[in-house]
């Protein structure tokens, strides 16, 4: 039986990698008066529906998908949560 | 007393807004042979440290920050989790 899973994927820069966009946001926030914000890091959040016969297969597919397309493993880490869904609605 | 909070912020396109980047990723995945993936939606995931005397004030600041800088409220939704942290480490 085919099951549908909602995958919530987080792609984040590795801690050792500089994040110029995060620095720009922090600097913009300081100009707006928010001096209480620091260490801004900007990553990606991806949701998708994946169909598979078993959760373990969906996880294997997702790891390959993240390595090949969603993340750059040289500078980024990723992690994901899988939630089985009945219908195709519910994304975002 | 000043408290530090780690904010995990999710910025996602409103469901009614087209996501060309998500469509491109889905099409790329199909070319790689992943025909079991659909409804790809790409959003932003932001982490930052915010300092405040109370959690309620940190939340109010974050809502303003999301409205003014991190999200475009016309086309995007946002939500965030706040976690009190002892030290400044632990971002990402």
What does this structure look like?
2 copies of one chain form a homodimer. With 92 residues, chain A is of the alpha+beta class. Chain A is built from 2 helices and 3 strands; from the N terminus they run βαβαβ. Chain A has a 3-stranded antiparallel β-sheet with strand order 2-1-3. Chain A is elongated and about 55 Å long. The model of chain A has no long low-confidence stretch (mean pLDDT 93). The interface between A and B is large, with 39 and 39 residues. β2 of chain A pairs antiparallel with β2 of chain B. Chains A, B: It catalyses: N(2)-formyl-N(1)-(5-phospho-beta-D-ribosyl)glycinamide + L-glutamine + ATP + H2O = 2-formamido-N(1)-(5-O-phospho-beta-D-ribosyl)acetamidine + L-glutamate + ADP + phosphate + H(+). Chains A, B: It comes from Umezakia ovalisporum FSS-62.
């Amino acid at each position: 039986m085919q099951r549908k899973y909602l995958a919530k994927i987080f792609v984040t820069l590795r801690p050792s990698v500089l994040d110029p966009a995060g620095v720009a946001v922090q600097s913009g926030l300081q100009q707006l008066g928010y001096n209480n914000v620091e260490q801004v890091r900007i990553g990606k959040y991806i949701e998708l529906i994946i169909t598979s016969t078993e959760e373990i297969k969906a996880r294997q597919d997702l790891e390959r998908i993240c390595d090949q397309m969603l993340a750059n493993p040289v500078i980024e880490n990723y992690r994901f949560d899988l939630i089985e869904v009945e219908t195709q609605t519910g994304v975002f």
